[in-house]
Write a structure and sequence with these properties.
It catalyses: [protein]-L-isoaspartate + S-adenosyl-L-methionine = [protein]-L-isoaspartate alpha-methyl ester + S-adenosyl-L-homocysteine. It comes from Solanum pennellii (Tomato). Belongs to the methyltransferase superfamily. L-isoaspartyl/D-aspartyl protein methyltransferase family. Its EC number is 2.1.1.77. About 35% of the residues lie in helices and about 20% in strands. It has a 7-stranded mixed β-sheet with strand order 5-4-3-6-7-8-9. It has a two-stranded antiparallel sheet with strand order 1-2. Strand 3, helix 8 and strand 4 form a beta-alpha-beta unit. Helix 5 packs antiparallel against helix 6. The chain is globular, with a radius of gyration of 18 Å.
Length: about 300
């Protein structure tokens, strides 16, 4: 496996690796996008790299068995090792993001008994998932300039609370971070997770809060926000979230139904909006609580 890969290259070769889809869909989607990339005949696709990324080349009963073996053999079964591997591969370039991901232990935010430090999305119940570490790294880097001390951030679909905790440490006690999740059980769990993490003092002091609510409507109480992250795919960008974005602020949101793009939405100082696509992704849909529980759009 090459020791260094640019973020642009990772975007091209690892569509499936950026997915936050239920795990049962991951192999099929992986294979589709890897086949598309193979047709481009990239020189980055060494045989060892293909074996690492392509689940169809894995052996054994578990689709992730070879991947787990690789990561544990590289000491990425530990949080710092996971972050270091992402840095070495060129996924993380920001020193601040490296430090934040080393400080917030991902192992505290995944279901017990799951391989916390493997670069893969994981089911967290209720037809929801926690994104792969490299997706967290990407979103943190995209929002880094809007997560400076004293700023306000909103995490829609906060899930287990991992990224919300990262945001809180970045904006510090003078800032404000709000996580919104419409599954009450996940909110209760996320609070317990944060209480065990480096962000616990911020939760206790109140600069970090986690709420049950419909994230499509945002959280007006602490708006406007310098940064908004949405952890599920919207068919269209909710107007409430655009309205709650501060002039000069940025929102990162997956948009689309089956075919999705991670959109970077900037609100200029005059209130106008610019939108660009960062990469193709596959997230669970941003929908109502009832539809999510039923597993429908």
């Amino acid at each position: 496996m090459p020791s260094s890969i640019s973020l642009h290259s990772v975007s091209a070769i690892a569509y499936g690796f950026r997915y936050r889809a239920p795990l049962k869909h991951t192999c099929l989607l992986y294979a589709h996008h890897l086949r598309s990339f193979h047709r481009q005949k990239s020189p980055l696709f060494s045989s060892s790299f293909c074996r690492f990324l392509n689940p169809y080349s894995f052996t054994g009963n578990s689709r992730f068995s070879r991947m787990e073996q690789f990561w544990s053999g590289s000491a990425v079964n530990r949080n710092k090792g996971m972050t270091e591997q992402l840095r070495r591969c060129g996924v993380i370039k920001s020193q601040e993001v490296i430090e934040i991901m080393e400080t917030v232990d991902r192992g505290l935010f995944v279901p017990e008994g799951t391989p916390a430090y493997v670069d893969s999305p994981m089911s967290i119940g209720y037809n929801a998932t926690i994104s792969a570490p490299h997706m967290h790294a990407m979103c943190l880097e995209l929002l880094e300039d809007r997560l400076q001390p004293g700023m306000h951030a909103l995490d829609v679909g906060s899930g287990t609370g991992y990224l919300t905790a990262c945001f809180a440490l970045m904006v510090g006690p003078q800032g404000r971070v709000v996580g919104v999740e419409h599954i009450p059980e996940l909110v209760a769990w996320s609070i317990k997770n944060v209480e065990k993490s480096a962000a616990a003092p911020l939760l206790k002091e109140g600069s970090l809060s986690l709420h049950v609510g419909d994230g499509r409507k945002g959280w007006p109480e602490h708006a406007p926000y310098d940064a908004i992250h949405v952890g599920a795919a919207a068919a269209d960008v909710p107007q409430d979230l655009i309205d709650q974005l501060k002039p000069g602020g940025r929102m990162v949101i997956p948009v689309g139904t089956f075919f999705q793009d991670l959109k970077v939405i900037d609100k200029k100082l005059d209130g106008s909006i610019s939108v660009r696509s960062e990469t193709s992704v596959r997230y669970v849909p941003l929908t109502s609580r009832e539809a999510q529980i039923k597993g429908t759009d």
